[in-house]
Design brief:
By secondary structure, the chain is α+β, with helices and mostly antiparallel strands. The protein has nine helices and twelve strands. A five-stranded antiparallel sheet has the order 2-1-5-4-3. A five-stranded mixed sheet has the order 7-9-10-12-11. A two-stranded antiparallel sheet has the order 6-8. Strand 1 and strand 2 (11-14) form a beta hairpin. Helix 4 packs antiparallel against helix 5 (150-174), helix 6 crosses helix 7 and helix 7 (224-241) runs antiparallel to helix 9 (308-317). The longest helix has 48 residues, at 99-146. The protein is elongated, with a radius of gyration of 26 Å. Its EC number is 2.7.13.3.
Length: 341
């Protein structure tokens, strides 16, 4: 959010993001003072005067920004940066950064950086495993052709079966590095319905998969199959976490779609974004895993590969999006954000 103001706080210019957050038009805002919309106007006034008089080139502080809409008095925590404009004594630049947004950006950058390093390590490891794995399987097949004892042949079949299982795992490790193959117009509700039908086919009793769709969401360009796999991986994880509730018959997963306006993903601002929530009433993500659930080979259950959420995050990132998670006992929400045209 950006505003250009006079030293007394009266607005000369505000950008569209500030319009959206405050809830008033630019025409209305430029007729009023920015001091009206902050909870600590004295701190802002002092900063404007100090920068305008060239006492400081920049002043920073934190405050809360009031909103006119949707609820009067609703506040947004912001970090304020007051700066000079070409040493002008008549105009001052004010930047307001949502603290929650800044925290999320820092977290996204940290997760993305860690994911890139980890994926590169795993990709190299997978390639190193793949070559000798083919040799092991081929040798076991040749050995099986020479053996006359059924008992010994059974052992070679175990080797072949396990080699095939490892090959599947290696292919899944390499999958995130494959770019979208089929880019078409994607309807997110078709994706959700496909995932819903697959989930209910696997869990016909004890689990409700509820819909809460915004029918106005437009189609966007993407790889439909990758997005189905991403949402399916999240829903399958939720279903596994809900196993006890499925046995009791009160397990619930909600697929919710909304349009999110003026959203920042990474460091890029988008006018519109799809927000898809996968919500469940399970026990929640273990506290020790919350910061690592998207890392490869990290799993919260015995026997899990730890690749489901990694693949989901990677497929969504390839659509310029991201996935976030909020979890507490009784309510876990995975939020998928994807820019819309």
């Amino acid at each position: 959010m950006v505003a250009v103001v006079r030293p007394d706080g009266s607005c000369l210019f505000v950008n569209s993001v500030l319009e959206a957050v405050v809830g008033l038009s630019r025409k209305t805002l430029v007729q009023r003072s920015l001091l009206e919309w902050v909870r600590e106007p004295v701190a802002l006034q002092e900063a404007l005067q100090a920068v305008a008089c060239n006492e400081f080139a920049t002043r920073r502080f934190e405050t809360t920004l009031r909103r006119a809409l949707p609820l009067p008095g609703e506040a947004v925590p912001v970090h304020v940066i007051v700066s000079q404009i070409d040493h002008s004594h008549h105009k001052v630049l004010v930047e307001l950064i949502e603290i929650e947004q800044q925290t999320r950006q820092d977290r996204e950058e940290r997760v993305l950086g860690q994911a890139q390093v980890t994926k590169e390590l795993i990709r190299n490891l997978a390639h190193e495993i793949k070559n000798p794995l083919g040799g092991i399987r081929g040798a076991a097949q040749l050995l099986a052709m020479e053996l006359r004892s059924p008992e010994l042949t059974e052992y070679t079949q175990v080797i072949i079966h396990e080699a095939d299982r490892l090959q599947t795992l290696v292919d899944r490790l390499l999958a995130p590095h494959r770019k979208p193959h089929v880019v078409t117009d994607v309807n997110i509700h078709e994706v959700c319905e496909r995932v819903r039908s697959l989930t209910l086919a696997e869990h016909p009793r004890g689990l409700r998969v509820q819909r809460d769709y915004d029918a106005s969401i437009p189609e966007f360009r993407g790889d439909r199959e990758q997005l189905i796999q991403a949402v399916l991986n999240i829903v399958q994880n939720a279903a596994l976490a809900l196993q006890d509730r499925i046995d009791m018959g009160d397990a619930r997963i909600v697929l919710r779609t909304r349009v999110h306006r003026q959203v920042t993903i990474g460091k890029q601002r988008f006018r519109l974004a799809l927000e898809l929530h996968v919500e469940d009433n399970g026990p929640g993500v273990p506290e020790g895993l919350k910061d690592r659930i998207f890392y490869p080979l990290v799993s919260g259950r015995e026997g899990g590969s730890g690749l489901g959420l990694t693949l989901a995050q990677t497929f969504v990132q390839q659509h310029q999006g991201t996935i976030e998670c909020e979890s507490e006992p009784g309510r876990t929400v995975f939020k998928i954000l994807i820019p819309l045209p």
